[in-house]
């Protein structure tokens, strides 16, 4: 009887101390996070062979769109650095004389929004045409020169060619102002198209990465089914069971992002010399620009985020189904 | 502490595992649950642990009507119950210490407290010297004692055991039963399912007998 009474007192004491205080709870929650993180990392490193394969798959899938996007950025830089991408051809009225045309050229040359104005004299142009085409006789038989004077105007940098075109068209002796924009537009459209293709590809590959990670985590869950059941039997919450798998996903993703950054870096290093050789042939000192430290960090972070998402998908799909039976 | 009110559990295939079972188990009591295999012993324990829900009737544990415990509340409910399984259910890739510490880590204790309580529980079952060992290197009796240490480490109010001496020889079985009695002495409600009638009838405790899901007259 006495034993039972003291036993009950002891139990009450045990009950009150067994309610861990809030701060302790927070500490232990934090401890379990670092414990799960370390334990997951250890498991990932213990199976280095298969982990490396997972990292490579994710790394390649992330490196591909990244490398293409870097290539596009470089291409844009090259095309942007070309001088006078657009040229405006001003056809003067037939009645305009040579002096008037020269005066107009001088006037245009003075303008701030014009980089250069070149006069193609109509007499010189006809002679050149006759010479190049071989129609000397035909040209000679003409009563009058059918060509107008032509001014080739290059807009100053930063000037919108179409705006300048409208202004020049308003000038007195100008009959027609034609912007030779077609190839610039084609190039820009091509760049936009490529950008979209890269974006689409990136979207598909990101989805692939999430699915690969989800599947890897699913296998990890399957491998540790007994453990999950035991943890649930002794009162582990879903969050507790979920935690190590989320960290596993994070490590796979972070590793994959790291590999992706390395691959892009390696590709740039591999291409740097030939590109600068090519550039020097065009008298350009163009340099390939890479993704930089920030870009690499972003890749790693993105990898981590994708890993978490993939793990979350797998865990929410498969963990609930594992209940003690 | 544990009370069943006309509890029936029918499994989907139409088999009645428990029929109209009513029983009250007081605090500080140690009760044996016996009956041939398939009589419903495990089902009764599963209902207490919320691994299953009754088809009809009411189960009340520690003042709590289990029908009112949502699935989110199940982990918290299980933390108040220590369970010893027949097949031990240990984590074989973790040390003895880590196995026993698991409920404390889940409950969220500070790591010094975890170490202190885990060692105390291991000491109680006489396995303190094996804390670094892996369960696979232990004998059946030792593994069962690890399971018991894990069940009591968080000082639950209720201790359930499903055939805890199932695979052990008589001397070891008696030893294990003495352990359960010791926990009962300090105020833990203990419910042990066992078909080892020879052993349990020697001990002076209430015995509940199930036959085909019905509870026969309780004897003490």
UniProtKB/TrEMBL annotation, chain A:
Protein name as it appears in the record: Cell division protein FtsX
Membrane topology: Multi-pass membrane protein
GO biological process: cell division
Organism per entry: Sediminihaliea albiluteola
Family in the record: Belongs to the ABC-4 integral membrane protein family. FtsX subfamily.
Xref: InterPro entries: ABC3_permease_C, FtsX, FtsX_ECD, FtsX_proteobact-type
One GO cellular component term noted in the UniProt record for this chain: cell division site
The FtsX extracellular domain, residue ranges: 87-175
Intracellular or extracellular location(s): Cell inner membrane
Xref: Gene3D superfamilies: 3.30.70.3040
PANTHER family in UniProt: CELL DIVISION PROTEIN FTSX
Keyword ATP-binding part of the UniProt annotation: no
Domain ABC3 transporter permease C-terminal residue range list: 201-317
UniProtKB/TrEMBL annotation, chain B:
Membrane-topology descriptor: Peripheral membrane protein
UniProt GO molecular function: ATP binding; ATP hydrolysis activity; transmembrane transporter activity
InterPro entries: AAA+_ATPase, ABC_transporter-like_ATP-bd, ABC_transporter-like_CS, ABC_transpr_LolD-like, Cell_div_FtsE, P-loop_NTPase
A cellular component term, taken from the record's GO annotations: plasma membrane
Biological-process GO terms, alphabetical: cell division
Keywords from the UniProt entry: ATP-binding, Cell cycle, Cell division, Cell membrane, Membrane, Nucleotide-binding
Domain ABC transporter: 2-220
Subcellular location(s) per record: Cell inner membrane; Cell membrane
Record-linked Pfam families: ABC_tran
Superkingdom assignment: Bacteria
SUPFAM superfamilies given in the database record: P-loop containing nucleoside triphosphate hydrolases
Family: Belongs to the ABC transporter superfamily.
NCBIfam families: FtsE (TIGR02673)
Entry function: Part of the ABC transporter FtsEX involved in cellular division. Important for assembly or stability of the septal ring.
Quaternary structure and partners: Homodimer. Forms a membrane-associated complex with FtsX.
Protein's name according to its UniProt entry: Cell division ATP-binding protein FtsE
Organism encoding this protein: Sediminihaliea albiluteola
């Amino acid at each position: 009887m006495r034993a039972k009474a003291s036993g009950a007192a002891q139990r009450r004491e045990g009950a009150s101390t067994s309610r861990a205080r809030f701060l302790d709870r927070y500490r232990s929650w934090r401890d379990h996070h670092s414990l799960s993180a370390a334990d997951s990392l250890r498991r990932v490193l213990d199976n280095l062979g298969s982990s490396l394969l997972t990292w490579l798959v994710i790394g390649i899938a992330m490196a591909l769109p990244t490398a293409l996007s870097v290539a596009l950025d470089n291409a844009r830089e090259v095309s942007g650095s070309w001088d006078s991408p657009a040229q405006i051809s001003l056809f003067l009225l037939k009645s305009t004389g040579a002096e008037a045309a020269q005066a107009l050229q001088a006037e245009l040359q003075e303008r701030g929004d014009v980089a250069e104005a070149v006069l193609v004299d109509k007499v010189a142009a006809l002679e050149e045409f006759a010479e190049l085409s071989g129609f000397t006789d035909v040209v000679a038989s003409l009563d009058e020169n059918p060509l107008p004077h032509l001014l080739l105007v290059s807009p100053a940098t930063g000037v919108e060619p179409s705006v300048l075109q409208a202004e020049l068209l308003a000038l007195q002796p100008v009959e027609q102002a034609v912007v030779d924009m077609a190839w610039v537009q084609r190039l820009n459209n091509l760049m936009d198209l490529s950008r979209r293709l890269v974006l689409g590809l990136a979207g598909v590959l990101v989805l692939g990465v999430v699915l690969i990670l989800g599947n890897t985590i699913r296998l990890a869950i399957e491998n540790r089914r007994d453990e999950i059941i035991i943890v649930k039997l002794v009162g582990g919450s879903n969050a507790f069971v979920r935690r190590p798998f989320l960290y596993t996903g994070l490590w796979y993703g972070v590793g994959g992002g790291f590999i992706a950054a390395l691959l892009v870096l390696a590709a740039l290093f591999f291409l740097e010399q030939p590109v600068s050789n090519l550039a020097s042939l065009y008298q350009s000192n163009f340099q390939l620009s890479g993704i930089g430290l920030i870009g690499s960090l972003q890749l790693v972070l993105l990898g981590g985020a994708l890993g978490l998402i993939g793990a979350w998908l797998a865990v929410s799909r498969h963990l609930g189904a594992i209940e003690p039976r | 502490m544990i009370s069943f009110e006309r509890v029936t559990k029918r499994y989907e295939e139409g088999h009645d595992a428990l029929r109209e079972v009513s029983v009250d188990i007081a605090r500080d009591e140690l009760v044996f649950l016996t009956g041939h295999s398939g009589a419903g012993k495990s089902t009764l324990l599963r209902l207490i642990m919320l691994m299953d829900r009754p088809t009809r009737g009411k189960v009340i544990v520690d003042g709590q009507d289990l029908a009112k415990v949502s699935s989110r509340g199940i982990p918290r409910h299980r933390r108040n119950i220590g369970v010893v399984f027949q097949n031990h259910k240990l984590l074989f890739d973790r040390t003895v210490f880590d196995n026993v510490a698991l409920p404390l880590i889940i409950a969220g204790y500070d790591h010094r407290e975890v170490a202190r309580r885990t060692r105390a529980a291991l000491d109680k079952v006489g396995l303190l010297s094996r804390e670094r060992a892996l369960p696979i290197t232990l004998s059946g009796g030792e593994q069962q004692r690890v399971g018991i240490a894990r069940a009591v480490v968080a000082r639950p109010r209720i201790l359930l055991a499903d055939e805890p001496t199932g695979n052990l020889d008589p001397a070891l079985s008696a030893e294990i039963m003495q352990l359960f009695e010791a926990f009962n002495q300090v105020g833990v409600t203990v419910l042990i399912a066992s078909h080892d009638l020879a052993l349990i009838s020697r001990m002076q405790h209430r015995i509940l007998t199930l036959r085909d899901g019905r509870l026969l007259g309780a004897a003490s």
